Amino acid sequence: MSIVAIQPAEPTKAAAIRIASHTRARRKTLMTIVWTCCLLVGAELAVRVRAHIRFGGRGSPVAGIYEPDALLGRRPRPGTHLDGTTRSLSINRWGFRGREIPKVKPEGTIRIAALGDSTTFAMEASSDDATWVAEMERLLNEHTESPRFDTINAGVPGYTLATSTVQLSERVMAFKPDIVMGFQVATDIAGHTRRQYPAQEQQSASQPTLTRFVQKHVLLLNLIRQNTAAFHSKNVQQDRHDRLDEAGLDQYREHLQHAASICRENGIILVLCTCPRAFGDPSAATDQHALAASALAHNPALSLPGLNDAYTRYNEIIRETARRYDLPLVDLDHIVPKRAEYFHDSIHLSNRGHQLVAEATARVVLAAIEGKARGNAAD
């Protein structure tokens, strides 16, 4: 029996048309992907150029300004300078924000060191001179020719009160401050929230490496998230919590008392400041979720009522400590109006807010110095 080879049938005209159509569709899809990628890359480059022009850096609030520190984890990098059209920032040779100061305190000078987190460091201020620390120094020196005042901005974004207390003992004390100002709440609340409700942190850590890389490094995505934060804040997850436990509050109280003890033992006046916030005024005819948007984003386990409760309770610990140890208090949570014009976001001050805080702190500093002078005279 012979075997006959079967030749494949010639494609019909209709089949050829379908193949050509599918080929064109695939090419079109591929070109769409390529052009979309080109547009996204171009947009990312544009955002980075814009950030460099406006902020004098790569755009990230922490990009390039830190170096590792064995004791503190990280510290501002001495000699760093960022110069943009909307923000300038410098780190002096000692690793503190602002102008250079001599390590040996000049005779006839009252030196003030401000401890805190990002609310003291003030990345959002338009310049070193616009921070409340520098503006307070200017107001004090305008008030009197003698004594003279100089200041150390020892705030560092991300530092908790425990870290700032180490900063005080190991770095700031070498500069012989006469007054220490404590303005430290926001990072401690964020840390308290992460410890008590770690599920959100674990969820973030379980994301694919590529996803976490994109979220951390793609400025375009971060810009979109910032600009839509107010919208998303109205649709927060239902599993957010309304209250923090007492353990974190007790820990904060202990650290505050430890800082007070260090200052008392070294003859330093400790001035405590409560933390102002843009949100939390129930009588204000404004969208409270919008005002609290950035704080809700940084505390993903807390609801808006929980966030308000946390700031209220932490600020009350500061007031209680001031009363217990007879310390000067600047009650900024009551002094700074809970309105958007005083804030860059939920808790970080605008230039107008820095001015108001500087005026309030300068008044309390002068009163504290006068009170100490009267006490010394009575002795």
The side-by-side strand order for the widest beta sheet comes to 6-5-7-8-9
Overall shape: it is: elongated
The CATH architecture designation is 3-Layer(aba) Sandwich
According to DSSP, the number of beta strands is 9
User: Termini distance?
Assistant: 129 Å
What does the average pLDDT come to?
A: 85
- Please give the largest β-sheet: 5 strands, parallel
Q: What is the H/E string?
A: HEEEEEHHEHEHHHHHHEHHHEHH
**CATH fold name, please?**
Rossmann fold
SS-based structural class? alpha/beta
What secondary-structure arrangement, pairings included, does this model have?
Layout: H1 13-55, E1 66-69, E2 73-76, E3 81-83, E4 88-90, E5 109-116, H2 118-121, H3 132-143, E6 148-155, H4 161-172, E7 179-183, H5 186-196, H6 199-205, H7 209-217, H8 219-227, H9 229-233, H10 246-265, E8 269-273, H11 288-291, H12 293-298, H13 304-325, E9 329-330, H14 332-335, H15 351-378
Parallel strand pairs: 5-6, 5-7, 7-8, 8-9
Antiparallel strand pairs: 1-2, 3-4
Question: How would you describe the overall organization of this protein?
Answer:
The protein has helices spanning 13-55, 118-121, 132-143, 161-172, 186-196, 199-205, 209-217, 219-227, 229-233, 246-265, 288-291, 293-298, 304-325, 332-335, 351-378, and strands spanning 66-69, 73-76, 81-83, 88-90, 109-116, 148-155, 179-183, 269-273, 329-330. It is of the alpha/beta class. It has one domain: 3-Layer(aba) Sandwich (Rossmann fold). The longest helix has 43 residues, at 13-55. The N and C termini lie far apart (129 Å). Mean pLDDT is 85; it is low at 229-233.
